[in-house]
């Protein structure tokens, strides 16, 4: 119900903050994070899901970092970015190219994914390293898709290559949703009987210098 009003606010903000690109990204990310926290508060009050937006991800490093996490539900992106008060991520081309969203996503520093184009992977990597160099954090799900129930898929190396090239730490976040909802096995219109509770916590922080900036080794460690 509030989606049209919310999009209008984002569109106006994007239009008003055009002068300084980096300042625009920071403001748009802060606005996005505030909107995500509002959404999760509303879901909590409506007893649709339970997630404490006052949760603290402990021991986060100052400055840019690459945040990696498992991906049990569709709520993972909104919850992490809400707690980080803004961050960059990579969006699927099909989502990024929607005309109602593209301007807002670009203004927030979101990167268009490579999709099925293998030549696009280098562009995504370059843009991610640039964002990290500008002081923005990146949120990446190394499995590349939502985690199977009770399991994790093998990790890709992209997130760890970003961290090695930009020489920033990797923050591992663990996400649990009990009972699981909005997973591939539990779709939107088949909610569990109990209210799903989403929980995030910092698992570890790894400096790529400890593995001589070798992304393969860093991936194995994480």
Calculate the terminal CA-CA distance, rounded to whole Å.
40 Å
Gyration radius, rounded: 17 Å
Task: Estimate the strand proportion.
Answer: 5-15%
Mean pLDDT value: 90
Structurally, the number of domains stands at: 1
Based on DSSP secondary structure assignment, what is the total number of beta strands?
Answer: 6
Helix content: 40-55%
Largest sheet: 6 strands, mixed
What pattern of helices and strands is seen along the backbone? HHEHEHHEHEHEEH
Structural class: alpha/beta
What's the tally of helices?
A: 8
Explain what the structure shows.
By secondary structure, this protein is an alpha/beta fold. The chain has one domain (3-221). The chain has helices at 3-16, 21-45, 76-84, 93-96, 99-107, 120-133, 158-166, 215-221; strands at 66-69, 88-91, 111-112, 138-140, 170-178, 197-206. Strands 3-2-4-1-5-6 form a six-stranded mixed β-sheet, sandwiched between helices. Helix 6 packs across helix 7. It is globular, with a radius of gyration of 17 Å. The model has no long low-confidence stretch (mean pLDDT 90).
């Amino acid at each position: 119900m509030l989606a049209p009003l919310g999009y209008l606010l984002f569109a106006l903000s994007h239009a008003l903050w055009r002068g300084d690109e980096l300042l625009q990204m920071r403001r748009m990310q802060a606005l996005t994070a505030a909107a995500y926290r509002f959404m999760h508060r509303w879901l909590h009050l409506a007893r649709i899901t339970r997630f404490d937006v006052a949760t603290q991800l402990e021991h986060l490093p100052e400055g840019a970092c690459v945040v990696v996490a498992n991906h049990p539900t569709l709520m993972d992106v909104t919850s992490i970015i809400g707690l980080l008060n803004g961050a960059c991520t990579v969006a699927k081309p099909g989502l990024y190219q929607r005309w109602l969203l593209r301007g807002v996503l670009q203004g927030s520093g979101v990167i268009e994914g490579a999709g099925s184009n293998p030549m696009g992977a280098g562009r995504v990597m370059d843009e991610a390293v640039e964002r990290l160099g500008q002081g923005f954090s990146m949120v990446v799900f190394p499995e590349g898709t939502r985690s199977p129930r009770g399991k994790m898929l093998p990790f890709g190396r992209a997130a760890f290559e970003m961290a090695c090239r930009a020489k920033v730490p990797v923050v591992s976040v663990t996400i649990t949703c009990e009972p699981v909802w909005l997973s591939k096995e539990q779709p939107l219109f088949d909610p569990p009987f109990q209210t799903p509770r989403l929980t995030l916590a910092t698992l570890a922080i790894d400096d790529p210098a400890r593995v001589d900036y070798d992304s393969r080794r860093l991936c194995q460690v994480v």
